[in-house]
Write a structure and sequence with these properties.
382 residues, alpha/beta, FAD/NAD(P)-binding domain, 2 domains, six-stranded mixed β-sheet, 8 helices, 27% helix, binds flavin-adenine dinucleotide
């Protein structure tokens, strides 16, 4: 029997686990699929923005990952991984257990490096964790008017569209509360909003931000954050409330797998997300996307997990086709509307090349996005 060990019970781990188990059962492959994950909660992080804005409760953002055993049929152990021993194909945990594997799928997410930039840990709010979202919700509820800055020190960060979506949602949030005197500014290292998603999406965001009276400043380099100011190399921007986006990096337990070129990211090779030093190891997280030319968000990771899972199946069960990296649909909020963009990919030898375009602009997309997240979590609720 082949053993696949999945580390991490977020989007990447869950997609891999359910795909591997379903296909193994369908094809009669004798496969043990075990997940080890630190938290009993499987979160849907995009809903943290809804928590901050008061349109979702804390309990609506997660479902118990242990339920994946009943729903999808693979084993789930809730325990923290403390050591990954690739030479001996073993993983050790805080709970004192040792797991052996034939194939290892690393879906441990990323760490947030708040202290990388001066003033970033000390000041401001965020909704990159549930706790952060609850604090931001309180700060927004008490906000009576003034200057809000949404600040990103570096990219790529988790979910490239988030700062723009948040700025547009904030305008609606204050309009619904009848608060008019709010100045909203996005300060971001992109030269234009959403530039990584192609010219259609740039046009979309620029028009929406103009309508919603949101100002955009290109951040040419971080200097510092003070209690009332964001200082970059090209601007000093006053704030009354700061919303910040964290820099990301490979998690500590995987730090020995970092790329020499850019230690934020994992050493990884495509097209199927393998760790080059140990062929049976796959890395699927935002730390493995930029080196392969891919986007850092849940939908792109979903595709990456499928590619990696099919690559494992291909090796266990000769002839099983390795999936191509499918187009990624980027679904987001605008100002009183929503949008859906699409990116298509082609493997170009060492990286994926992408081409992105706008598919649809409609208020219905907001509903689609919300239903998708809630339905995803409902499937894990018994
Ligand atoms: C505010 C916000 C808005 C977003 N909006 C969108 C969006 O609109 N569209 C989109 O596609 N994406 C969006 N994203 C991004 C998306 O949520 C992430 O890309 C996705 O959740 C990442 O999944 P993951 O499995 O790689 O990591 P995670 O979800 O972080 O999962 C990592 C898992 O590893 C576990 N773990 C960590 N360390 C250990 C350890 N040592 N031992 C054992 N287990 C461990 C954790 O408990 C967790 O279960 C958004 C994110 C945020 C924060």
């Amino acid at each position: 029997m082949a053993r696949v060990l999945i580390l991490g019970g977020g989007t990447a781990g869950l997609v891999a686990g359910r795909y591997l188990k379903a296909e193994a059962d369908r094809l009669g492959i004798d496969l043990d699929v075990t997940m080890v994950t630190a938290s009993e909660r499987h979160y849907m992080p995009p809903l943290f923005m809804e928590v901050a804005l008061g349109s979702a409760s804390a309990d609506e953002t997660w479902a118990p990952i242990k339920n994946a055993e009943k729903v999808y049929g693979f084993k789930v152990e809730v325990d923290r991984v403390t050591e990954i021993d690739l030479a001996n194909r073993q993983v050790k945990t805080e709970g004192g257990k040792t797991y052996d594997y034939d194939y290892l799928f690393l879906g441990l997410g990323v760490k947030y490096v708040w202290d990388k930039y001066k003033g970033m840990s000390e000041y401001g709010y965020h909704n990159y964790t549930l706790e952060g979202a609850l604090e931001l919700h309180k700060a927004l509820s008490e906000f009576k008017g003034g200057k809000i800055v949404i600040y990103t020190p570096e990219g790529p960060h988790r979910c490239g569209i988030y700062p723009y979506e948040m700025s547009l949602n904030l305008r609606m949030y204050f309009e619904h509360r009848g608060i008019e005197n709010v100045e909203i500014t996005v300060v971001h290292p992109d030269k234009r909003p959403g530039i990584g998603l192609g010219p259609d999406l740039v046009r979309f965001f620029e028009r929406e931000m103009e309508k919603a009276n949101v100002k955009f400043i290109h951040n040419e380099g971080h200097v510092e954050i003070t209690p009332d100011k964001v200082v970059t190399k090209n601007a000093e921007v006053d704030y009354d409330l700061l919303i910040k986006i964290p820099p990301i990096a490979i998690p500590d337990v995987m730090s020995f797998m970092a790329s020499e070129k850019d230690p934020r990211w994992a050493k990884v090779i495509g097209p199927d997300f393998r760790y080059p030093d140990y062929d049976e190891v796959y890395i699927v997280s935002e730390a493995s996307m930029p080196p392969l030319g891919l986007l850092t968000a849940g939908v792109p990771l979903h595709n990456a997990s499928i590619v990696a899972a099919t690559s494992i199946l291909h090796r266990i069960h000769g002839g099983y086709p390795v999936a191509e990296y499918a187009p990624t649909m980027c679904v987001g909020h605008g100002y009183n509307t929503g949008f859906s963009g699409n990116c298509e990919y082609e493997w170009a030898g060492s990286k994926y090349k992408r081409e992105c375009y706008l598919l649809v602009k409609s208020p219905l997309v907001r509903l689609m996005k919300d239903s998708f997240y809630r339905g995803w979590l409902d499937s894990l609720r018994l």
